[in-house]
Design goal:
Distance between the termini: 53 Å
Bound molecules: flavin-adenine dinucleotide
Shape: globular
Number of strands: 15
Oligomer: single chain
Helix content: 25-40%
CATH architecture of the largest domain: 2-Layer Sandwich
Number of helices: 12
Largest sheet: 5 strands, antiparallel
Number of domains: 3
């Protein structure tokens, strides 16, 4: 590994000042399960690493009227084992559960997963489906960006030099909502998603009041299947309509072929997983 300067700020102000001074030479370190692997493999060689773990108050997982607040140091394991996350944010909880190994989940943060901006990142589809927002602190103060707009390409985010994410807020769910994340890979455990589909919907009797469908690992960034959503929004749900939405999601996907799968297989799986995810979310929302 190339030598680098190591910094341990103890306040957010100190971290922002450091990141501003060091500019593009610096990388933020949270759990390190992505950053350290990339550094060991020489895929990333920052001259400075800014470890944020000594900053107090960044590991919160709090549920109130605003929703679920996930701090920058909150691990995927904390989400997986949170009764609140399990009962109100089932899609996100599922993503955090079928994620790497228990050892990795005890270190890997949700915010780190979002900031890594991998096309196959598991937490991104359910966070987008739930309308979550990223809270950013930087030299010019605070700003808030929808998770949907945060990733702009593989490994690329809207974060500017000197900025870091302090927390994510996932809005409180309304009544009769269903949230599902389905991940498909070559193995059941310890696998990155070949395709991931998240659905969050709200139901009023037989009417689908609101729905978001988000596809992971089939485009450079997670993709909203807007046509599929439009087919179901404010409609009486039927098997035929769900199937039409699944096909619309398949059309929306833009997969590539790689070591994990062919593009054709990914497209086919988008249709299968979207149908299943809508059906499960619909049942859950009763
Ligand atoms: C064996 C193994 C299995 C894995 N399996 C999965 C899997 O199943 N699904 C999956 O999605 N991922 C998986 N990953 C990837 C990784 O674990 C996740 O992306 C993890 O959530 C990253 O979080 P972290 O805290 O470790 O981030 P770090 O490695 O510390 O950081 C990741 C990136 O985010 C930036 N960053 C972190 N926090 C902030 C912040 N607060 N503000 C600004 N930038 C920040 C860092 O600079 C870096 O670029 C796996 C990794 C390993 C090693």
């Amino acid at each position: 590994m190339k030598r680098f300067g190591y910094h341990e700020p103890t306040t957010l102000d100190e971290a922002v000042a450091l990141l501003r001074r060091l500019g593009s030479e610096a990388s933020v370190l949270a759990g390190g399960t992505d950053l350290l692997v990339q550094m060991k493999e020489h895929r990333r060689e920052p001259a400075h690493v800014v470890n944020i773990k000594k900053i107090a108050g960044l590991d919160d997982l709090v549920f109130d009227a605003q929703g679920l607040r996930i701090g920058a140091l909150t691990t995927t394991r904390a989400v997986e084992t949170s009764p609140i996350a399990r009962s109100h944010y089932a899609g996100l909880c599922e993503a955090a559960t079928h994620f790497a190994s228990i050892q990795v989940r005890n270190r890997a943060t949700v915010v780190g997963n979002v900031c890594r901006a991998s096309p196959s990142a598991d937490t991104l589809p359910p966070l987008i489906a739930d309308g979550a927002q990223v809270h950013i602190r930087g030299p010019r103060g605070l700003r808030v960006v929808a998770v949907q707009d945060f990733c702009i390409g593989p490994g690329q985010t809207v974060l500017a030099e000197g900025e870091l994410v302090t927390h994510i807020v996932v809005p409180a769910p309304s009544e009769h909502t269903g949230k599902v994340y389905l991940k498909h890979g070559r193995r059941v455990e310890m696998e990155l998603a070949t395709v991931g589909v998240a659905v969050s919907l709200a139901r009023e009797g037989d009417l689908c009041h609101e729905i978001r469908i988000v596809l992971g690992a089939v485009a450079p960034t997670p993709l909203r299947a807007l046509q599929a959503e439009a087919l179901l929004r404010n409609q009486t749900v039927s098997g035929a309509l769900i199937e039409a939405a699944a096909q619309a999601a398949r059309e929306a996907s833009q997969p590539i072929s790689d070591v994990r799968s062919s593009a054709d297989y990914r497209r086919a799986m988008v249709a299968v997983l979207t149908r299943r995810a809508i059906e499960q979310a619909w049942e859950q929302a009763q």
